[in-house]
Amino acid sequence: MSVRVLVVDDQDLFRAGFGMILDAQPDLAVVGEAADGLEAIDKAVALAPDVVVMDVRMPRLDGVAATRRICAETSAKVLVLTMFDLDEYVYDALRAGASGFLLKDARREELAEAVRVVAAGEAQLAPTVTRRLIADLADRGRPRPELARRLGELTERERDTLRQLARGCSNAEIAAAMTVSEHTVKTHVSAVLSKLGLRDRVQAVVFAYEAGLVVPGGLA
């Protein structure tokens, strides 16, 4: 079954170009387009895409606000596109629920693969963005008590897994650190996401920092 994609961009050429690239893939299907955030929300609700490819700087409603609404009201995953990897909107969009990030000048193969990765429930992030996101979260101040309490829903192994996720570790790295198999790590990751109601690893990183499980300079 093809991954259903909604393409959102206020520039006609970008929107058409991304749509053509993605629709040419045998496993991807563009089911709609939108030119601003409000239209994106309406289309996401009406068309039920698996992935929304989202521009951030748009009229009427920007991509950050649209991402927040779409992630709250639908099951769609959001892949953010921007011209600049240091765009402050990117971090806001990731905190709002976006599952991935990609530069607009990425190669067509990278765009298609990013959509596949996000659709599969993984995270698509440039390393520079991951580092800056974590640094930003680390600087936000005191943990949120309501999130810290929810850590009690996790087993000790699951909390250890969440700590490793927050450090940006891959499944293989987590397996080596915890001396378990990658299959076991995948089971722990799935349990963490399910118990905490998180969409993917990006949201797990955000949760770990905001809950105080991970602190600047080390682990809590």
List strands and helices in order, with pairings.
Layout: E1 3-8, H1 12-23, E2 28-34, H2 37-47, E3 51-55, H3 63-73, E4 77-82, H4 88-96, E5 100-103, H5 108-119, H6 127-138, H7 145-150, H8 156-166, H9 171-178, H10 182-196, H11 201-210, E6 214-215, E7 218-219
Parallel strand pairs: 1-2, 1-3, 3-4, 4-5
Antiparallel strand pairs: 6-7
Helix pairs in contact: 2-3, 3-4, 8-10, 8-11, 9-10
Structure commentary:
By secondary structure, the protein is of the alpha/beta class. It has helices at residues 12-23, 37-47, 63-73, 88-96, 108-119, 127-138, 145-150, 156-166, 171-178, 182-196, 201-210, and strands at 3-8, 28-34, 51-55, 77-82, 100-103, 214-215, 218-219. A five-stranded parallel β-sheet has the order 2-1-3-4-5, with helices on both faces. A two-stranded antiparallel ribbon has the order 6-7. A hairpin with a 2-residue loop joins strand 6 and strand 7. Helix 8 packs across helix 11. The termini are far apart.
Note the main attributes of this structure:
single chain; 220 residues; alpha/beta; five-stranded parallel sheet; two-stranded antiparallel sheet; 15% strand; globular
In short:
By secondary structure, this protein is α/β, with parallel strands linked by helices. The chain has helices at residues 12-23, 37-47, 63-73, 88-96, 108-119, 127-138, 145-150, 156-166, 171-178, 182-196, 201-210, and strands at residues 3-8, 28-34, 51-55, 77-82, 100-103, 214-215, 218-219.
